[in-house]
Amino acid sequence: MIHSTLASYCEGFPDATKAWPAFPLAQPPELAWWSNLTADALDGVLQGQSVLELLQSGLPQLLLPQQSGISSSDLYKALVLRGESVDQALIAGVDAPPHWHDPEALRFWIAPHPCGAMPVVQTPSWADFVLLVRALAHRGEPAKLVDGVHAQAVSGLIHWGLIRAFGRQSRARLIVLHDAPYGSVQASDVPGDLTEAEWLQASSNLRLEHELTHLATKRLLSQMRINLLDELIADCMGMVAALGRFHAELFGRCLATESASGRWTTYTNALSETDARLALDLVMLRACELEHHLDHRPELLLREQAMDRLRWLCQQRLDRPIQ
Question: Is residue 150 in some structural domain?
Fold first, then answer.
C-alpha cells in the first residue's frame, strides 16, 4: 500500500506518552520450558548438535525437506499440524531432509529483557541460518531471504513440546541470529578502533537488542512497524547496548544510505520514490540530533535506564526535532 502523504509515514507511536507498566513484565509460563533446556549448560548456553536435536524434538518443521508446496503437503499436516510421531512421518516419506552445514557451531540460550526474555538460536553459518528461517518463519517453503538480513524474530510457532506441556493454545517465540558484521559494515568503519572479532561480537549484541526492541514496542505499544523511525529506535538501543553510545554516522552506514538500493529502502517501499528520499533525509537528521542529545544526557546511556531511554525514543517523530 502506498502512503497518501509523507505525513502519515512520519506519525509516531500512538499512546507513547501514556504511563508504562512496571518492569520486568510477567513472563509467559512457556519460558520455564525453554529455561529447563539450558539449566545445566555452561553459562546458560547450549552448544553443538544437541541444540539441533532439542529444537527438532518440538519443532518438526526442522526435519522436513524445504521445497515448494511442503507447507500444504500431507507430510507437513501430519508432522507439524497434528503432531504425529516423527517415526511415522519419516516412514511416510521424508527422503530429502535439510542438510545442516555446521550443527556443531549452533548456540542456544535465553536472552533476558524487561519486556520478556526470548529464546535465541545463533549460528555462524549463513546456510544454516537460511534453513532455520525458512523452516520456522516460512513453514519450510524455499523463500529467498533479503540480502543483509541476519536476524529473524519468529512468533506463533506450533511447538509440540509446549503444546503437550501447556495445551494447544501455546505457541513458541524465538529469535534466530546469524554471526555477521552488522549492516555489512567493516570494523575499520566503526568508531572505537574495534578488531574484526570485537566488531563481530558487538554486531551480535547489537542485532539481538535491535530485535528485542521491536518485540518490546509490539508488546508495549501494540506496534512493530516497517518504518525508519522504528529502525532508528532499534539501532539506538542496539548500539548503546553493544558499544556504549549511539553513532549517527554508523547508523547511516548500516542503512547503506549511499546506495539507491541500500537497506534503508526496505523500510520505505510503501512510499513514492520522492517521499522515500525525504524520509531518509529526515531520519538522518533525527539521528544526528539523537547523537547530540545522548552525548549531553549520559544518564540515558546507563543500562538501568534502558526502558526510560526506549520510552523517550518512542515519543519522537521523524518530522519533528528530537526533544
Answer: no
Specify the pLDDT at position 280.
Answer: 98
pTM, two decimal places: 0.94
Does pLDDT of 147 surpass 80?
A: no
The pairing of strands 107-111 and 46-47 is antiparallel
What amino acid is encoded at 290 in this protein?
Answer: L
Say which residues have a Cβ less than 8 Å from residue 34's Cβ, sequence separation at least 6.
110, 119
Indicate the range of 39-43, 51-55, 150-154, 187-191 predicted with least confidence: 39-43
Closest by CA position to 58, among listed 133, 177, 155, 165: 165
The SS3 call for residue 155 is strand
Is 221 inside any structural domain? yes
Domain tally, the chain: 1
* Residue 46 lies inside a defined structural domain of this protein: no
Residues of the domain holding 298 = 183-323
Q: What is the structure's pLDDT at 42?
A: 86
